[in-house]
Write a structure and sequence with these properties.
Elements (H helix, E strand, L loop, with lengths): L22 E3 L2 E3 L20 E8 L9 E3 L2 H11 L9 E2 L2 E2 L19 E3 L4 H8 L3 E8 L7 H6 L11 H10 L10 H9 L10 E3 L15 E2 L9 H4 L7 H12 L5 H24 L5 H6 L7 H14 L1 H4 L3 E8 L8 H25 L6 E7 L18 E7 L7 E3 L21 E2 H12 L3 H7 L17
Parallel strand pairs: 3-11, 3-12, 8-14, 8-15, 9-10, 9-11
Antiparallel strand pairs: 1-2, 4-7, 5-6, 8-13, 12-13
Helix pairs in contact: 2-12, 5-14, 10-12
Length: 478
């Protein structure tokens, strides 16, 4: 990967790339993370309470048109006529369109500002409950932008656009970094954590991924700590003090993988490896080797739902935040399978059911733990999809609809600007690909401000935020 110095953003390089490798020994991996110093000097910010951000990333680009669906008759008719195809026997789908009769149970009681009605996918009854109980809101048509962009400006290329639009890897990276495509070094979650890192007694646990290496969590000083949905990871040979039946071999292995080096990559590898070994026992002591019966009861789908299992691990860590001495944490979980150019009617419903159930379980768990107002979760994805069908799927898009959830969220609302449904209006750039009306920076700015980042430093955490009108979405109460 090539990394460029962004001096025009007032950002300075602190160190070389901290390696993104993984050490696999005795069938257990040491989690590694990427961190490249790009943050400008900024004042550390204090925190006396506890708050956590949880990013739920939907890899492959979720089809938002079949997630938050038009329900009023005229708009649903537009949606249905564009997406309809061959009706499937015994299915709610006609082509990739969902019939209006199948949406009655998940129709939302709140209307858009222009009176239009929306429904959630029929499999998302749990998220409907969250919305109606004002525990979640829907952010309409959000996506990566460099500056506010109109259709004319897009067509004329008269303003800068996010690089490599419609590319999975690049747009995943742009969502998570807020200003760099694939090859970016830090993410806005990690950069926000940098500013509040000093409030945590165990800074290692500031940024935690339960879903592998995550650019979103990489900061200048904050380094993503990777766990699995079953707990902290270690090297079995070192933990058991036996390798090939020999304690001496295990000791030699520990010396080998933790010894200092003058080579930057090797040094960073050693740093993260030692951190994983040193942290393991503390995590096990705090959360145990298995979840409690009460925690399992809060996540009934976790045995078959990988997202639920990941969020259960987040809940176990949040439950012990006081024991760890944590004031601010950023978590990332995720699920894949959303790149549905084909088989959308067959595969998308199950994905949305798992997403919906897992989010409801997590919110219930936060309420049960007394952490509801202190934890805010939000969904993200590569990009949205086309309104047009390619037969039994949809293609790469841009803007998308997302969920924001938590006790501090001003719930039961549609936030941002809802787009028209059609193929000729100026809020789309072809085939119904939405031109975002809200930037990731505007979403990130309100999340970062709630987290405790000052208005001045929000523009360092999210470099393009200076180009947008901020704090207008109203994500949070008060």
């Amino acid at each position: 990967m090539t990394h460029n110095k962004h001096s025009h953003l007032g950002l300075t390089r602190r160190s070389l790339l901290r390696s993104s490798a993984a050490l696999a020994l005795q069938r257990v991996s040491i989690p590694m993370a990427t961190s490249l110093g790009l943050m400008a000097d900024a004042a550390a910010q204090s925190a006396n309470d506890y708050k956590a951000l949880v990013c739920i990333f939907l890899y492959g680009a979720n089809d938002h048109y079949n997630t938050v669906i038009p329900y009023d008759l005229p708009t649903h008719t537009n949606y249905f006529n564009i997406r309809k195809g061959t009706p499937a026997a015994g299915s709610v789908y006609d082509g990739i369109a969902i019939g209006r009769n199948s949406l009655a149970a998940t129709a939302l009681s709140t209307a858009l500002s222009d009176g239009r009605q929306m429904a959630l996918n029929p499999e998302m009854s749990a998220l409907k409950t969250l919305f109606e109980n004002k525990r979640a809101s829907i952010l309409m048509n959000v996506g990566p932008l460099v500056v506010p962009t109109s259709r004319i400006q897009y067509d004329n290329k008269s303003v800068p656009l996010p690089p490599k639009l419609f590319s999975h890897n690049d747009q995943q990276a742009y969502w998570q970094s807020s200003f760099q495509a694939e090859g970016g070094a830090t993410g806005w979650g990690g950069r926000a954590a940098d500013l509040l890192l000093s409030n945590n007694s165990k800074s290692t646990l500031t940024c935690i991924s339960i879903n592998g290496n995550a650019l979103f969590l990489s900061g200048q000083n904050a380094i993503s700590y990777q766990m699995s949905s079953t707990g902290a990871t270690t090297v079995n040979a070192i933990k058991g003090k036996s390798l090939f039946g020999s304690a001496n071999c295990a000791a030699a292995l520990q010396t080998l993988i933790t010894q200092s080096s003058s080579l930057p990559m090797a040094s960073d590898y050693t740093t993260v490896t030692k951190r994983a070994l040193d942290t393991y026992d503390g995590i096990v002591a705090a959360i145990g080797t298995t979840a409690s019966a009460s925690m399992n009861a809060l996540f009934p789908s976790s045995a078959t739902n990988t997202l639920s299992a990941q969020l259960k691990m987040v809940a176990r860590m949040i439950e012990q935040q006081a024991a760890f001495g944590m004031k601010r944490q950023v978590f990332m979980v995720g699920m894949g399978g959303f790149d549905l150019h084909d088989f959308l009617p067959d595969q998308h419903p199950a994905l949305l059911q798992k997403l919906s159930s897992a989010m409801k379980e997590f919110d219930d768990a936060m309420t049960s733990l007394g952490k509801g107002p202190q934890v805010t979760s939000f969904t993200a994805s590569d990009f949205g999809r086309t309104l047009t069908s390619n037969g039994d799927g949809s293609d790469h898009g841009w803007g998308s609809h997302h969920f924001v959830m938590g006790g501090a969220v001003d719930g039961g609302k549609f936030l941002g600007t809802a787009p028209e449904i059609g193929l000729t209006h100026n809020q789309q750039v072809g085939s119904g690909r939405l031109l975002p009306s809200t930037s990731v920076d505007q979403l990130g700015a309100e999340l970062a401000a709630w987290f405790g980042v000052s208005a001045t430093d929000v523009k360092t955490v999210l470099p393009n935020a200076r180009n947008f009108d901020l704090y207008k979405l109203g994500l949070f109460k008060g």
